[in-house]
Design goal:
- The chain contains 2 helices and 6 strands, in the order αββββββα.
- About 20% of the residues are buried.
- The protein has about 100 residues and is α+β, with helices and mostly antiparallel strands.
Length: about 100
């Protein structure tokens, strides 16, 4: 898995590799607003993660997850802040994302 210095560089590379859907957390699912589609934790797999820690600014802390729907149709990324800036999500989603933390 390649490593990058910035979130932007990572996202640009992932888009070149076909991860074109932009996902957002929505409490108990991930959603793609552009097409109005949501996936529950049972409907997707996380294939990789990239962690960025803000050395000088805690607001720079983030994790990028690469997500593929189980039917193989959707392939994209989810950028999530962690620490005090993290989103509120349900326990099933916490378990899904926690399995992939390094």
């Amino acid at each position: 898995m390649p490593t990058f210095d910035t979130v932007t560089d990572t996202l640009n590379d992932l888009k070149k590799r076909g991860y074109t859907t932009d996902f957002n957390l929505a409490f108990d699912k991930v959603k793609c607003t552009a097409i109005g589609k949501c996936l529950s934790p049972a409907e997707f797999e996380i294939t990789a993660q990239y962690r960025f820690e803000g050395e000088s600014n805690p607001s720079d802390e983030a994790v990028i997850y690469t997500i593929v729907s189980k039917d193989g149709i959707m392939k994209g990324t989810l950028v999530s802040a962690y620490g005090m800036y993290s989103e509120k999500i349900n326990e099933e989603m916490i378990r899904k994302l926690s399995v992939h933390h390094a």
